[in-house]
Amino acid sequence: MRVTKLHSWLLAAGVLLASFAALSCRRELPVLKTGGDFSLTDHNGQRFELSSLRGKAVLIFFGYTSCPDACPTTLSKLSSVYRRLGADAKNVKTLYISVDPGRDTPAVLKEDLGSFELDALGLTGSKPEIDKVVALYGATYEIIPTPDSAAKYTVAHSTTIYALDRDGRTRMEFPYEATVDQIVAGLRKVLALR
Amino acid sequence: MKKKAPAACNVPAICAAGFLLAAALGAQEGSIVAKDAWARVPLPSQNDIAVFLVLENHTGEKRTIVSVSSDAASSGEIHEMIMQRAVMKMVPVARVTVGAHGKKSFDPNDLHIMLFGLKKKPSVGDTITLTLKMDDGTSVPVTATFRKYASN
Fold this sequence. Notes:
The complex is a heterodimer. By secondary structure, chain A is α+β, with helices and mostly antiparallel strands. Chain A has two domains: about 30 residues; about 160 residues, 3-Layer(aba) Sandwich (Glutaredoxin), CATH 3.40.30.10. In chain A, about 40% of the residues lie in helices and about 25% in strands. In chain A, the strands form two sheets. A seven-stranded mixed β-sheet of chain A has the order 2-1-5-4-3-8-9. In chain A, strands 6-7 form a two-stranded antiparallel ribbon. In chain A, α3 links the parallel β4 and β5. In chain A, α2 crosses α5. The radius of gyration of chain A is 21 Å and the shape is globular. About 5% of the residues of chain A have low confidence. Chain B is an alpha+beta fold. Chain B folds into two domains: about 30 residues; about 120 residues, PCu(A)C copper chaperone (Immunoglobulin-like, Sandwich). In chain B, strands 1, 2, 3, 4, 5, 6, 7, 8, 9 and 10 form a ten-stranded mixed β-sheet that branches. Chain B is globular and about 45 Å long. In chain B, about 25% of the residues are buried. The N terminus of chain B is likely disordered. The chains are: A alpha+beta, B alpha+beta. At the A-B interface, α2, α3 and β7 of A face β4, β5 and β8 of B. β7 of chain A pairs antiparallel with β5 of chain B.
């Protein structure tokens, strides 16, 4: 009798603990204010809707193909993230949104992304279309003329990577300095959300 | 006579060895040396590269890089990547000074040499040569090896 009572107490405590853990887990990944659905042109020249990726976790970052360091570094890092994700990699889509539509045609985006091993779509559009998505995600960019440089202009841009859950809601933001381990761990949490 | 001959023959050899040693030491002492230079193989659409290296000043005076050039590219510049509140910015830098007996690192996410308009698409393992012109009129030769993108 006593043993049974003890068992039921333990069970109740266990259930309480589990629900608390689940709650605090959910609290760890709140839905962030930034983000939302958008429409752009993908690197195959097709119209792209973010809503078409429901059911997958999505990584979004802004950049430009003439970027000599930061953007290829991020793409390279994300390639490692995909390798590390193993079987979960098929549930993650990366969106590389150009903030330099003057130079980054769909063909250029496609060619460059082909150098990396990740499931990514390069996205571009008209400047107003891009500006809308940049504002939606709380990102920034600025085209800076450099008349004395052969670069003609450089593009200053935010380097944050946004992680969206399977319903397209922003759950995490990774800084440029985030390691492969940190991104993999974060993505596993986002994928575990239901 | 027979005994002297080999000794006489050795004089130029010793002189040559001494000269080579002096030349080798001279490359370190009293000059500017570029070490561990490398660049990433550019992406298909890219025609410009960032070169990273360590510049050592073995002289007793500060020296400043005033220009960069390469026969393999149309122009060269010094740039710096600045990260401010998660925003990445590339800024051209006119001059970079290395203090007396000092060292300056050109690293990813920091100072780097930009070469614009590569004349040939490089592959991993290829090298590219460039020249850093210093404010005292001397030139520092640099040979950078191409690596593929690595990640952490």
